[in-house]
Amino acid sequence: MGVYKRPDSDVWWYEFELNKKRYRGSTKTTSKRDAQAVLVDKRREAQEDQQQDRLGVKRSTLYAIALKWLEASETTHADHKNNLSRVRKLFGDELVQEGKGWTLKEGNRPGLPKDLMVHEITQETLVTLKGHRMKEGNSAATINREISLVQSLMGYAQSLSIVMPTKPIIWSERRNRAASLKMKESKGKLRWLTMEEEQKLLKELKRRVKPGDRSASDNLDLVTMLLDTGARYEEVAGLRWPQVDLEGAVIHLYRSKVDNEGGVRMTKRVLAILKHRREETRGRTFVFPAHVITGQGTTDWDRADDCRGHATGAIQAAIDACELNDDPTLDRVTPHTLRDTYASRLVQAGVSLLKVSHLLGHADESMTKKYAHLCPDMTGREAAAVLDGLHAD
Fold it and tell me: What gap in Å lies between CA 335 and CA 6, rounded to an integer?
């Protein structure tokens, strides 16, 4: 036993036995000297693995850990579908629309190798991933979320007694920005829609509604609900009918970011939308069912009782068609802008930041401070009114 060549290959293979356990594999090299060096490394790894196995420690690929994490988090994370998408992207897979359905294309984009062992992950590995995402045009916030996903997976691996890298990973280091994986996110300007811009967007969405196209009418209803509830996209896209109280005109949203529930009072147009959808979706669990393509420019609800999930492409296309992103001096309008629009209008109307924070389901009230400049003199006005009342005759 040692290194050898197979008859049909120029690559050297290794084989050895340790404590009655046989190890065999390719050295991935045509050099005998390099192959012997690989053999030495594999023997050392085997010894370490056997010792660690006795201690309950083992090796694993990061991809295997990701699959275990997805399985474990399916019942504990309300945004499980979003996590599936994040893991696909991390390992270079992509869902591509082909005809009436979607096909999984493995390795269709840059990502981490699926055979990458957890203990083999280095700073360079993740810096390279970060570089790919920057070339793709991902924002700092998007890149940071992906790096945070890797950090979460490695933390989960450690909890499973998986062998970790010998050198620590620098996730975020203010004093060493070059080595830090997480990027500084630009606060930017707060962007919200004026009433005129809202009307333009709703008019464009309504124009796109055609007979036989469920998707277009769903987009119109969903955008209207986002404007009038301030909910996160996934909270409305995954809304179940048991969460909707039509009689009390209240929507009970599960806030996945803060792990709690909150009640949102319906506006008149949201109530009208939900009453209409209740009749149309009888027998279905979700307010916005999943779509299936039925023809050229036509869609219907899928027979499977599933939710719409993350499908914002058509909404973003309508936003762009309205020329809401034509001004380069303004922040880009996205579906999340609808949530900022809701909050901004309430603050401008005098609703306190504390109340807006509760309505948005923020885990920390400081997250609502970005809207504070919209009511700079509200506190002063309230103070003056109190003092004037004390001196009134």
Answer: 57
- How far are the Cα atoms of 45, 68, 353 from residue 74, in angstroms, in the given order? 34, 10, 34
- For residues 342 and 229, is the Cβ–Cβ distance under 8 A? yes
* CA-wise closest residue to 236 among 195, 293, 277, 183: 277
pTM exceeding the 0.90 threshold for the entire prediction = no
CA distance 342 to 356: 9
- C-alpha 55: how far from chain center: 36
Per-residue pLDDT of the chain (393 residues; tens, 9 = 90+): 789 998 888 999 999 998 888 999 999 999 999 999 999 989 988 887 777 776 666 889 999 999 999 998 877 665 677 788 899 999 999 887 676 677 888 988 899 999 999 999 999 999 999 999 988 888 888 888 899 999 999 999 999 888 899 888 888 866 666 667 887 766 556 788 999 999 999 999 999 999 889 999 999 999 999 999 999 898 899 999 999 999 999 999 866 554 445 688 999 999 999 999 999 999 999 999 999 888 888 889 988 888 887 888 899 999 999 999 988 778 889 999 999 899 888 888 888 778 888 888 776 666 677 777 666 555 666 677 778 777 765
The token duo for 96 is 């591509």
Tokens of 385: 């009114």
Q: Please return the burial class of 385, using the count of CB atoms within 10 Å of its CB with bins 0-12, 13-18 and 19+.
A: exposed
Burial 17-45 (b: 16+ CB within 10 A, else e): eeeeeebeeebebeeeeebbebbeebeee
- Say if residues 159 and 300 touch (Cβ distance below 8 Å): no
